[in-house]
Amino acid sequence: MENLFSIGEVSRYQQISKQTLIFYDKIGLFRPAYVDPGNGYRYYSAAQLDYLDTILIMKKIGFSLSEIKAHMQSYNIDSSLALFKKQLAVIDRQIEELRLIRSRVESRCEQMEASQAHRREADAVTIEEMPEQYLLALPVDPPYTLREISIATKKCFAEGFGEKLPVFFQCGVIVPLEKIREGRYTEASYAFLPVEKAEGEGIRRLPAGKCAVTFHIGDYLSIGRSYRRILDYCGDHGLEILSDSYEFCINDYITSHDENEYITKICFYVREKG
């Protein structure tokens, strides 16, 4: 049709699918100038292509289709300026969130890169000066099996993401010392996520201090051998264990499907016996 563009032509010029144009028509965002009553074909005017450009640009900027539709019902330079300034604030928040996510991914990459060294240290126990750190910790329900630990971990991630806490993409558990001494190595009382310094319900501060550390390589059910190693080391070297066990997952289900590649860092706060 003269001075009109078919839906196929608009799709080709604007690099947008016909299905998207049909959807925009159905929601009243971008309707054709003319619909052939005989075959239902849609046609658009030249002026409408500029209108479609505006829609696509606003979508690229990050506006929702409902925001675009409401704005374009009656817009001018003043309303556009106000809306675009508001979107700048949204973009700034997204940039900050991406920076936070990037730092978390970078931290996880560094852990995985260091995993080879941890494998070489699998049979060793070392003493480390641990820095102050913070955890988002949630209780594990009885009977404290791997099922309940998994559920508590999922709750940690859900709460951390829901509350927009500065969590690292890492998890861990706290196992009571008395259970470890009884050989109940996998009965964790809390699941946790390391976070940047924060306050609030569920946030636990770990002070800086001396820790006995060992790395467990392999599936979680075999972690008892690593606990026996670190307990023996503390006994042989005159170290008093002051805390429950803090297990930090270095390599886990997030980074490998092979449990033989799992690496768990086991930490106890200790001091020399007086």
TrEMBL record:
<feature type="domain" description="HTH merR-type">
    <location>
        <begin position="4"/>
        <end position="74"/>
    </location>
</feature>
<dbReference type="Pfam" id="PF06445">
    <property type="entry name" value="GyrI-like"/>
</dbReference>
<dbReference type="InterPro" id="IPR010499">
    <property type="entry name" value="AraC_E-bd"/>
</dbReference>
<dbReference type="GO" id="GO:0003677">
    <property type="term" value="F:DNA binding"/>
</dbReference>
<dbReference type="InterPro" id="IPR029442">
    <property type="entry name" value="GyrI-like"/>
</dbReference>
<dbReference type="GO" id="GO:0003700">
    <property type="term" value="F:DNA-binding transcription factor activity"/>
</dbReference>
<dbReference type="Pfam" id="PF13411">
    <property type="entry name" value="MerR_1"/>
</dbReference>
<keyword id="KW-0678">Repressor</keyword>
<dbReference type="InterPro" id="IPR000551">
    <property type="entry name" value="MerR-type_HTH_dom"/>
</dbReference>
<keyword id="KW-0238">DNA-binding</keyword>
<dbReference type="InterPro" id="IPR011256">
    <property type="entry name" value="Reg_factor_effector_dom_sf"/>
</dbReference>
<keyword id="KW-0805">Transcription regulation</keyword>
<keyword id="KW-0804">Transcription</keyword>
<protein>
    <submittedName>
        <fullName>MerR family transcriptional regulator</fullName>
    </submittedName>
</protein>
<dbReference type="InterPro" id="IPR009061">
    <property type="entry name" value="DNA-bd_dom_put_sf"/>
</dbReference>
<dbReference type="InterPro" id="IPR047057">
    <property type="entry name" value="MerR_fam"/>
</dbReference>
